[in-house]
Design brief:
50% helix, 201 residues, five-stranded parallel beta sheet, 12% strand
């Protein structure tokens, strides 16, 4: 079964995705995917389970692969697609809208996003204070979504000044992203560790 979750409320979307997929699902970033990768994702099996549970991030934004999605609607795996933005004018959307469930999640208030950005700004000078601020909003956040907002801020910094520190920060964030997806370490501990190091990068 394939479901599409979209919108800027990452926290609520993430909760809905977990309700659909359960815990311990695979996460695939689709920005670099090619059509040749799709059979393995939609039809491939694993040694541990015949039915896979997969989250595809930014799948529809990758037009080269998105146009092939109608070919895989009968996939037996549980597959969630998450998009920050969804263009309903595309041919792909029109082909899927009656065949796939779409769920939209909009942020009603931007308070939490502003808090995330405040945490990042504080961490650049005082990592301990940033971790304390994170503890206040952590129950309302989802680690990967939170990390995505940190990346957004880091990219903005890099766009404003492409210095050594800005490059190091992006490199460290990519390592945190990989560690969250590939280790059993608690995601929040990895994020807190990054915040504590940020001022010294």
């Amino acid at each position: 079964m394939i479901k599409v979750f979209y919108g800027d409320d990452r926290v609520q979307a993430s909760k809905a995705i977990r309700e659909f997929l359960g815990e311990g699902y695979e996460v695939i970033d689709c920005t670099e995917l090619t059509p040749a990768d799709l059979p393995t994702i939609f039809l491939g099996m694993t040694l541990f389970a015949e039915k896979r549970r997969i989250l595809l991030r930014d799948f529809l934004a990758n037009k080269a692969v998105a146009e092939h999605l109608p070919e895989y609607l009968q996939a037996s795996h549980d597959i969630a697609i998450f998009e920050m933005k969804l263009d309903k004018r595309t041919g792909v959307y029109k082909a899927l809208k009656d065949a796939v469930e779409f769920k939209e999640f909009k942020i009603i208030q931007a308070q939490n996003i502003n808090k995330v950005f405040d945490i990042y700004r504080v961490a650049k000078k005082d990592g301990r204070r940033a971790v304390q601020m994170l503890a206040e909003i952590e129950p309302e956040q989802e680690p990967l979504m939170f990390l995505g907002l940190l990346v957004t801020q880091a990219i903005r910094d890099f766009a404003g000044h492409q210095g050594v520190k800005e490059k190091r920060v992006l490199h460290e964030l990519s390592k945190v992203d990989l560690q969250i997806k590939s280790t059993a370490t608690t995601p929040w501990l990895l994020i807190e560790s990054f915040l504590l190091r940020l001022a010294w990068l």
